[in-house]
Amino acid sequence: MRKIIIDTDPGQDDAVAILLALASSELEVLGITAVAGNVPLALTQKNARIICELAGRPDIKVFAGAERPLVRELVTAEYVHGKTGLNGPKWPEPKMPLQDGHAVRFIIDTLRDHDKGSVTLCVLGPLTNIALALVQAPDIASRIQEIILMGGGFFEGGNTTPAAEFNIYVDPHAAKTVFTAGIPLVIMPLDVTHKALTTAKRIAAFRGIGNAAGKATAEMMAFFERFDEEKYGTDGGPLHDPNVIAYLLEPDIYKGRKVNVEVETGSELTMGMTVVDWWAVTDRAPNALWIKDLDDDRFFGLLVARLKTLP
Ligand code: RIB
Ligand code: CA
Questions:
Q1: What is the number of domains present in the chain?
Q2: Residues 97-123: pLDDT tens digits?
Q3: How far apart are CA 124 and CA 140, in angstroms?
């Protein structure tokens, strides 16, 4: 089993990623760490617990992390996710507890307590918690097996500004800290997630599963996609975060290239832009596997197959 920590700002797409992870026996979820992003921290930590309970996993340890980015003010995305961050279904109040202790402490302690190179970080929101852990405990950088993250965009540009994708835009300084730490990185940018659209047929397939997880996923997607359908004029919106988990389960769904990626933190115009040296025109060393393509039917087929195993 692959040991993972999921760092997340739920968000409907984060929620589907968490469901996919909890439905996959190949993965051992050591804990879930919430960060401020799509909605403020008080909601992201609550939403993470709601989703664990939907998956029938009130045993999962959920921690609250950073309430705001390292340097900049928090920017949230209620315009996409709704006021609660999980608009769509009607949710009960979570009963499972939030763990005591800060998420950053949990990340550091877990990496130190497990064999070097045996824990993967799956990062679905702004990278604030990960950067804080690296600054507080630089020794953990060499202990992380791999970081798989959703963030950035190059061929697709940005979704929050013309230049920047939301997760990187919210905390560009955190992203820069992580991207320059020498940790093996796999990045799922808008370049690939914009090819994973929640079409009406795919939402019907979620609903057709016939269990609570399938129904909630269909209702979350129906709400979540409306903003992007309007913006991009597509049938369905891009389903971002579950690609991080799907990559761990079936990496050959994806195609990418080892490249150098730098993050803009100086210019306000391009703040949070991921500058990808796709054609190796600089001597900057490659620091990430940048994913550009996927087999979208396989991705959604995997999602349906795994959601079927949940309550
Ligand atoms: O830009 C999309 C990303 O920002 C996704 O992770 C979404 O959940 C938000 O966090
Ligand atoms: Ca997210």
A1: 1
A2: 999 999 999 999 999 999 999 999 999
A3: 20
